[in-house]
Backbone:
């Protein structure tokens, strides 16, 4: 993931929906990069000039942003619309406090302790809440951001998941499907398989139709498998509408005993039993995306960011690449979709919370204005060689995601909890393990870890 950071950075564009999942920068010094060397195309800039932003004079126009990625564009790249608005309406700038992805929390702790807090922290990795509230590293945003304002209404279902004691600790400015099922349309046709979007339109894209497709396609003797990648297990579970770890009544809770979690685990156990997953364990735990174009793997579940890379030929030629949201769990009460976010938290001791609020306002306005969507579409076509069909799939997937977004919290409580759960919840898929046995092995330790977290939250 980390080596893909350069591609991800380029994507914090007009759509503003891409989450940086890692980084490789090692410097921890502050670097001001105020995005003045490049600008929007003239026709885009004219559109942005028409966007209304209610502004007030900022006493401090510089927002310090601690992250492994920079909001400011690289040389030669267009200024994101939200940053253009922040610069032109507020005279603001983002000062990037550069840090490695692995070292971001250590650096944050050091800066806060030294009363040299940055202002804003990337929350897009979905590991800041409730951890940030537990450790006191982040402050509620509600004194500065009015989440009842109309510009936040389209994303309230997501932001309300980051609330403790009635206060928001994360401001998500945009969403995407956390994982999409990437496939090659030519390969579907060659194997007489139905495109998932036909199932979606008929209301029948679910676990059953996915299983039928996988069983029809797979043939181990011919080296043909159903699923590859790193993201399928958690994504499938989230379509139940039940996270392994969630928040209820101000407490962090587990759902290891939930019947829908057991159903997801049984589904993945049966996949392993029928030899449907690409056997990463036989290939030094390596994935092989190029099998999609070669007709050797049916689906490659991954974040949509992978389709913003310069070379997507591993999935197929232009016009062959398709993607769809995760299939629905038939027993769930709604069509839940795992969600990724572009999101930010306010650092404790921040010197410029008003500046953070101003930037967040610009980011939401950039998301909610239809004229910006037209700019985004053109940039997808020009910069990433997308087709009209791919862009329409993106918009429909976002729409479906925003209706019933799902976020998993097991990575956002403590490192120990993450270590306890990350591999065991994938054991049925990878190794054909019994979920009943796995659950009993980890349940006591998980509950002890949650007790510690809730004690700290309460204090």
Residues:
């Amino acid at each position: 993931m980390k080596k893909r950071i350069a591609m991800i950075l380029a994507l914090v564009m007009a759509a503003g929906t891409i989450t940086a999942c890692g980084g490789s920068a090692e410097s921890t010094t502050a670097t001001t990069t105020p995005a003045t060397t490049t600008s929007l195309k003239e026709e885009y800039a004219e559109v942005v000039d028409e966007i209304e932003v209610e502004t007030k004079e900022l006493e401090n126009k510089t927002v310090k942003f601690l992250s492994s990625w920079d909001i400011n564009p690289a040389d030669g790249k267009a200024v994101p619309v939200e940053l253009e608005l922040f610069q032109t309406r507020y005279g603001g700038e983002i000062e990037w406090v550069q840090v490695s992805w692995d070292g971001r929390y250590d650096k944050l702790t050091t800066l806060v302790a030294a009363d040299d807090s940055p202002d804003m922290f990337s929350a897009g990795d979905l590991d800041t809440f409730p951890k940030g509230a537990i450790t006191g590293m982040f402050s509620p945003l509600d004194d500065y951001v009015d989440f009842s304002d109309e510009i936040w209404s389209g994303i309230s279902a997501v932001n309300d998941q980051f609330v403790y004691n009635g206060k928001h600790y994360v401001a998500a400015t945009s969403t995407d499907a956390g994982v999409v099922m990437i496939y090659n349309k030519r390969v579907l046709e060659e194997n007489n398989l139905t495109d998932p979007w036909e199932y979606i339109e008929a209301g029948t894209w679910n676990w059953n139709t996915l299983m039928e497709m996988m069983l029809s396609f797979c043939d181990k003797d011919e080296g043909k498998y159903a699923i590859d990648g790193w993201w399928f297990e958690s994504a499938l579970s989230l379509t139940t509408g039940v996270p392994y770890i969630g928040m209820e009544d101000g407490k962090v809770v587990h759902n290891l005993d939930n019947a829908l979690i057991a159903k997801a685990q049984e589904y993945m156990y049966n996949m392993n039993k029928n030899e449907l997953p690409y056997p990463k364990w036989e290939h030094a735990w390596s994935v092989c995306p190029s099998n999609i174009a070669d007709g050797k793997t049916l689906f490659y579940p991954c974040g949509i960011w992978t389709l913003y890379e310069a070379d997507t030929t591993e999935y197929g030629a232009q016009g062959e690449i398709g993607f769809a949201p995760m299939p629905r769990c038939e027993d769930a009460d709604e069509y839940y979709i795992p969600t990724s976010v572009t999101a930010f938290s306010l650092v404790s001791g921040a010197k410029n919370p008003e500046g953070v609020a101003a930037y967040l306002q610009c980011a939401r306005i950039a998301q909610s204005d239809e004229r910006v969507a037209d700019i985004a579409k053109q940039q997808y076509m020009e910069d990433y060689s997308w087709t009209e069909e791919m862009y329409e799939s993106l918009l429909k997937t976002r729409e479906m995601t925003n209706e019933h977004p799902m976020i998993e919290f097991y990575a956002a409580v403590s490192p120990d909890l993450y270590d306890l759960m990350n591999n065991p919840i994938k054991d049925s898929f990878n190794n054909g393990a019994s979920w009943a046995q796995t659950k009993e092995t980890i349940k006591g330790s998980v509950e002890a870890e949650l007790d510690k977290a809730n004690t700290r939250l309460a204090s």
In short: Residues 1-38 have pLDDT under 50 and may be disordered. The domain at 2-175+341-388 is CATH 3.40.190.10 (D-Maltodextrin-Binding Protein; domain 2).
